[in-house]
Structure formats: C-alpha cells, structure tokens
Amino acid sequence: MSLIFAAPAPSAAQAAPRPIKLVAFGDSLTAGYRLPADAAFPAVLERMLKAQGRDVQIANAGVSGDTTTGGLDRLDWSVPDGTDGVILELGANDMLRGTDPAVARRNLTAMLDALKARHIPVLLAGMQAAPNLGPDYRTKFDAIFPDLARQDGVMLYPFFLDGIIGDAGLHLDDGLHPNVKGVETIAARMLPTVERFLDTLPAQATR
After folding, report:
1. Is 174 a catalytic residue?
2. φ and ψ of 25, to 5 deg
3. Angle at the Cα of 98 from the Cα atoms of 96 and 100, rounded to 5 degrees
C-alpha cells in the first residue's frame, strides 16, 4: 500500500514578503511638472531603490501648485491605509507666494500629527526660501523643517532641491522646476537618506 503525503499549506509567516509601500506626498516637484510619468521623482526614486535591492512601491501623490494648506486638506484620502511610510515634500509654493511661515509651520505640524496618529512614519523633505524674500522671511521659513523634525522625531532631508539650484542645465525653461536630469540628481542625492528611512520602518512593513 502506498502512502501519499500532502504538502502542508504555507503559513502566513512563510508567505512572500510584500513590497514596502511609500507615498510621495507633495507639490509639482513630486508630481513631475511637465515630465513623463516615469520621469517624475517617485518613479525615478523607486527605480533607484530597486536597483539597490529594495522591494518598494512609491505612489505619486504630488499635486502641482499645492500649498501646505491644500496638502492638509487632502492628506487623509491621499495616503491610504496600508501605507508604510510617507515622503512629505511641501512648502515651496507657500514660500513662492510669500505666505506667512507660521501658516506653513502650522499646516506641516498638523500633517505630521495626523500621520503619527495613524502610525505612519514620515521622511520630511525640507525647503529653503529664495534670497529675494529677505533675511527675516528666510530665517523664519528655513527653520520650519529642522524644528519640526526635532520636535516630532522624524527623519529630515534638509533641502529637496539640493544639488540643482543655480544649474540651468538641470531645470526646465521656467527656471523653477527640475528637468529629467534634475529629477535624477535630486533622487540620487536623496537615495542614501531614503534607504536609512526604510531601515527604520517597523518590521511589519517588510512582511
């Protein structure tokens, strides 16, 4: 008599790990203003992370022209349940409009608080004020991001546009938004920080 043994069904613990799900939440700098979808920051960063062996998916929740006020209004539905982490990039349009830095600080604080309440870690991408806004404005605005990172205990990438400011070859013809090479430069410079951020995510994010 022959015996046939059925293979045990795989347990939940043996299931293949799922990708880490990030949301890049920001304005036109995240959305990829005037660029193909696959050249936008979230897509470029995702490819770079995968090249490093990171199994990630990065949703593009960038909206061109968005301010911190607009971001706060749409945060809940833009960051779905099951998100493992958020790259928060907002504030540039507040600055370009000369909005009181206290408004941006208040809105960003509310966003960080809301994500914290949902147990979603944040990598905060900083912005810096343009020189023409004057030293007082620059001092108040530039302090927002490091202050909030310290107060909320979130990781900070000090300046999202680091590495491209002043280089016309890395911008579109409007002089404000990065072109394809500019986005690649931003993503490459930010990559080590994002990898450190991934390493801080709770263990369940990798299962």
Report:
1. yes
2. -115, 115
3. 130
Count helices and strands in the chain by DSSP H and E runs: 8, 5
**166 near 23, Cβ under 8 Å?**
no
Spatial neighbors of 38 by CB under 8 A, at least 6 apart, are 44
Rounded Cα distance between 118 and 157, Å, is: 22
Q: Which of 28, 94, 142, 171 is catalytic?
A: 28
* Residue 28 is among the residues annotated as catalytic for this protein: yes
Q: What is the pTM of this model?
A: 0.90
Is 177 annotated in the active site? Answer: yes
CA-CA distance, 126 to 165, in Å (whole number)? Answer: 14
User: How far apart are the C-alpha atoms of 154 and 197, rounded to whole Å?
Assistant: 9
- At 4 the three-state DSSP class reads coil
CB 137 within 8 A of CB 129: yes
Q: What is the pLDDT of residues 70-120, one digit of tens each?
A: 999 999 999 999 999 999 999 999 999 999 999 999 999 999 999 999 999
